[in-house]
User: What shape does this take?
Amino acid sequence: MNGVPVQETARCIRAEYQELPGLSLTGSQVRRLYGLDGVTCEAVLAALVDVQFLARTNDGRYVRHDRHPAAEPSTRQRRPPAPGRWREPPLVTGDSPREQPGATAPW
Assistant: This one.
């Protein structure tokens, strides 16, 4: 991608990570994949980290920020509960105290 504007390179890398949410690449892998020189690659990756789209792991890999274990809980994707650990709440049939006019719940 030599000669391609940095913004276009960042857009391509962002699109790749959106298409493959579990993608985990080192800086040298990104450099080879996109044909970037070291300075451009570091600049693009740093920009994507600054806007919190990517995060750098302890072993130097770049992953989506919302998939990184250290990401803030509000931005991390929540996994569904494990099977058997959560049950649907009972359906309300109209017999509960909350649905009867003037009735108060025991709690």
About this structure: Strands lie at 25-26, 54-56, 61-64.
